[in-house]
Amino acid sequence: MTKILAVVNQKGGVGKTTTTMNLAAALADLGKFVLIVDMDPQGNATSGLGFAREDVAYHGLYEALARQKKINDVIKQTEHEGLRIVPGTQNLAGANVELVDMERREHQLSDLLEEIKYAYDYILIDCPPSLGLLTVNSLVAADQILIPVQAEYYALEGLSQLLETVRLVQEHVKPELEIFGAVITMFDKRTKLSGDVMQELYKYFPDNIFRSIIPRTVRLAEAPSYGQSILLYDPKGKGAKAYMRLATEFIDRQEKIY
């Protein structure tokens, strides 16, 4: 049964796109069929997996949402067997405004994914760093939420706002939406601060913190500029190993739930 997850945190720079890309790549390398939906107008997951902006300018998620193209016609195969992506482009910024007047405006992405979801084990939606209509569409389309949280001082700032948005979606649109877990990113074991943030996070998510922690590494930051996941760019490095551990834990947790 397909599981759709929104990877979400409205605070920018927390490793959200890095986690979407590399977790998806690791899941694919473990034999799962995975689709990334790049809902962010910045399109960083798209460029980070090797797709030039000009090549997907009019062949992405926006065109599918606007019903100019079928979603199947804009899906791209990545370098990882078993991993595909619906590209995100700058056009999505306009969708935030255009969706306002649509009927079932919160359900537009959900309706699109209904057509194709059965072809995949997992669909990961890379949400924009905001709580606008694109993110609400992502939450309504999702079964579960994955929250990357940076191990730094202001990490928990805004988390209560995100959880309130999730609660409102649960209350008014999708009661079955659940928080699957939080992933600690950019962890530096040399600093006391990282440990303090982890302790605070356990108060927010006592049963939902992944044990697999993503370290801060230069290689993880470099990989997207080469259009590759960390598994292709530095397969033996600690970043790649961390995401493979996360993917294994992710699958184990999914199989225990279902």
Structure explained in plain terms:
The protein has 258 residues and is α/β, with parallel strands linked by helices. It has a single domain (3-257), classed as Rossmann fold, CATH 3.40.50. The protein has helices spanning 16-29, 44-48, 61-65, 92-98, 108-114, 133-141, 159-172, 192-204, 218-222, 230-233, 238-257, and strands at 3-7, 34-38, 76-77, 83-86, 122-126, 144-150, 178-185. A seven-stranded mixed beta sheet has the order 3-4-2-5-1-6-7, sandwiched between helices. Strand 3 (76-77) and strand 4 (83-86) form a beta hairpin. The longest helix has 20 residues, at 238-257. The chain is globular and about 50 Å long. The model has no long low-confidence stretch (mean pLDDT 90).
Per-chain topology:
Blueprint: E1 3-7, H1 16-29, E2 34-38, H2 44-48, H3 61-65, E3 76-77, E4 83-86, H4 92-98, H5 108-114, E5 122-126, H6 133-141, E6 144-150, H7 159-172, E7 178-185, H8 192-204, H9 218-222, H10 230-233, H11 238-257
Parallel strand pairs: 1-5, 1-6, 2-4, 2-5, 6-7
Antiparallel strand pairs: 3-4
